[in-house]
Specification:
Helices cover 62% and strands 6% of the residues. The protein has 140 residues and is mostly helical. Bound molecules: zinc ion. The site of zinc ion (ZN) has 7 residues, from strand 2.
């Protein structure tokens, strides 16, 4: 690799590390504003790397059995109408696409104990949990 390219990459990594929160917030906002672009990029990536994606999914399921079960269970319960997904984030109150946040971890007794959060609030909540209860939510 030419030296200037290596230097530029190092600078980019440094800027990313310094502004990680900002970059991620921008990325999430962009995804929310342009879901079709994100979907298109995702499905093209899947088309090119099907085996890799499926292998990663299998490994995730095996490694995080409890998480996978929790996400599957909530999804299925919403699908069959056993729980109703609200329309507004329980933290910031904005009307957005919501995710169930397992704020007490993924153990069987708390698997249905969820808070409905928008993606930015969920990212922040998970980060806070990782600091406070690292044993509940190991870093990815
Ligand atoms: Zn929110």
């Amino acid at each position: 690799m030419p030296e200037d390219v290596a230097k530029r990459n190092a600078n980019r990594r440094k800027r990313y590390a310094e502004n990680r929160e900002k970059f991620l917030a921008y990325l999430h906002k962009y995804r929310e504003l342009h879901p079709e672009v994100h979907q298109d990029i995702s499905s093209r990536y899947y088309g090119r790397n099907r085996a890799k994606v499926l292998k990663r999914t299998r490994e995730y399921k095996k490694f995080h059995k409890d998480r996978h079960y929790a996400h599957f269970l909530i999804g299925a319960m919403v699908y069959f109408g056993l729980i109703v997904k609200p329309t507004h984030c329980e933290n910031c109150g904005k009307e957005r696409r919501l995710q169930g946040h397992h704020h007490k971890g993924y153990s069987k007794e708390y698997v249905l104990d969820i808070v409905w959060l928008c993606v930015p609030c969920h990212v922040k909540a998970d980060a806070a949990m990782r600091d406070v209860l690292p044993e509940l939510l190991p870093a990815l």
